[in-house]
Amino acid sequence: MIKTIAFIGAGNLATHLALALKHAGYRILQVYSRTQSSADILAKRVDADACHSFAEVRRDADLYIFALSDKALLPALKTLQLKDKFMVHTAGSLPVSIFEAYATDYGVFYPLQTFSKARELDFSKIPLCIEASRTELESELMLMGDKISQSVQLLSSKQRKQLHLAAVFTCNFTNHMYHIGQTLLQEEDIPFDLLKPLIMETAQKVQIMPAKAAQTGPAVRFDEDVIKAHEESLKMHPDFQKLYRFASESIYHLHSEGYD
Amino acid sequence: MIKTIAFIGAGNLATHLALALKHAGYRILQVYSRTQSSADILAKRVDADACHSFAEVRRDADLYIFALSDKALLPALKTLQLKDKFMVHTAGSLPVSIFEAYATDYGVFYPLQTFSKARELDFSKIPLCIEASRTELESELMLMGDKISQSVQLLSSKQRKQLHLAAVFTCNFTNHMYHIGQTLLQEEDIPFDLLKPLIMETAQKVQIMPAKAAQTGPAVRFDEDVIKAHEESLKMHPDFQKLYRFASESIYHLHSEGYD
Question: Does B69 fall in a domain?
Answer without folding.
Answer: yes
